[in-house]
Amino acid sequence: MRKDPFKLRELLEPAVRALGYELVGIEYHPSGKHSVLRIYIDQEEGITLDDCTAVSHQVSGILDVEDPVPGQYTLEISSPGLDRPLFQAADYERFRGQQVKLRLRLPVNGRRKFKGLLQGLRQDEVVIVDDEGNEVCLPLEQIEQARLVPEFQG
Known about the structure:
It contains three helices and eight strands; from the N terminus they run H-E-E-H-E-H-E-E-E-E-E. Strand 1 (22-29) and strand 2 (36-42) form a beta hairpin. Helix 1 packs across helix 2. The chain has two domains: 2-78, RimP-like superfamily, N-terminal (GMP Synthetase, Chain A, domain 3), CATH 3.30.300.70; 89-148, SH3 type barrels. It has 154 residues and is of the alpha+beta class.
């Protein structure tokens, strides 16, 4: 599961919720002066540029005062999009029944990438059914990235 290296969720979530949004997750991509701190927000009506601007203004103030992230970085506020990233254990239950793509930190059965129908959580494992109909159990703590696979009606 993605780690929040600076414990930013507990710092920022109250402010994001107070503005009326869900804090979906936080990604930090270190790269010297080009580091990126990306915060995903959502709400039932969807996210607009004005929503991102409002959250950016509020979050920037908190980050400036608390200074939890060392060095320079670019702050990005984004909607989760159609290929929504999954960050927390609860996300794997919330999106049960949807297609998901997963990438692990370490291989399981010689593989790091998996795709299948999300069945939810069982103890500390994410359960999917792959394209061949096989149930695959993947350790939650080994998930490096997980995203929903958009389904388009044709």
